[in-house]
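[job 0412] stage=fold_complex status=start
inputs:
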Amino acid sequence: MKYDKVEFQNIKCFEPKETFECGQCFRWKREEDGSYTGVVSIGVLNVKKNNSKIIICGYLKDDANLERFCKDYFDMQNDYEEIQNTISKDDLTMKKAISYGEGIRILNQDPWEMLISFIISAANNIPRISKCIENISQKYGEKVCISKEISKEMFTNSDEREYYLFPTPSNLAKATLEELRECNLGFRDKYVLNASKLISSYQVDLIAISKMNYLKAKKELTNIDGVGSKVADCILLFSMNKGEAFPVDTWIKKIMNEIYVETKDIKKINEYAIEKWGINAGIAQQYLFYYRRENN
DNA sequence: CCACAGGGCGGCA
DNA sequence: TGCCGCCCTGTG
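[job 0412] stage=fold_complex status=done
writing structure:
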């Protein structure tokens, strides 16, 4: 493991709070100084924002390239200002929604981690989802110790810290159902274990799925037990770069029914969203979702 | 004690 | 196809 640091200047549309608290990720925590610390595939990262400067440091795996990782993970190649202009044209609701979450960026996370995380999210709430993910990471993931010296570089206080990487598919697949039950996943534990076995045995190939077109990929994902339309769309949007993915949960259902299209049929809401926003449907969903949640 | 939380599944008409 | 009860667990 090694320490590294990068800075990005003049990144438009990036607010850590909005990006990390809009519900797309579960392992980023706010620090007392307002920065955020999270566990990602290459290690532990801390993100600070000073005016328009983004400072990212991390304690990383030896072969990690922090700058390249961040450009991808934080979706830096996308022009969010242009997307916002496009989707808010002639749409007052969307204009308002965007004004609440201008700084949301869609993260490019690890497909495997998203698969398990969103299986866990079913009929669950965010604090408990985070707790479940911490539990399985502690039990089956690799431990990362941050010494006082490194801690001093990364954080405002220099206490030693311990983190756990998200478990690999093969390590999680080694669990028994009884063991996994101790992680308090509830009825979702059998889905998590089954999915782990599918991935670790290569019966399901997430990289291959991520290269398929949106509809084909969604169909493949929903073949996995515990993965329905909403969970599949979350995986597709937050880890497979599918901008058309439009996760329809209870909140989005409500706001879509109120403003755009009145139907109980989730598939129809999906089709409406793709028709209206195309490849920007997913980011549109995030603005609407964040807006609705911030306003109860 | 009861309802419900960012769903999905299986059984039923 | 469309609807509904149920699934674990923690919290109000």
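[job 0412] summary: Residues 122-125, 127-128, 131, 181, 184-189, 264-265 of chain A lie near DNA strand C (CB under 10 Å from a C1').
[job 0412] exit 0
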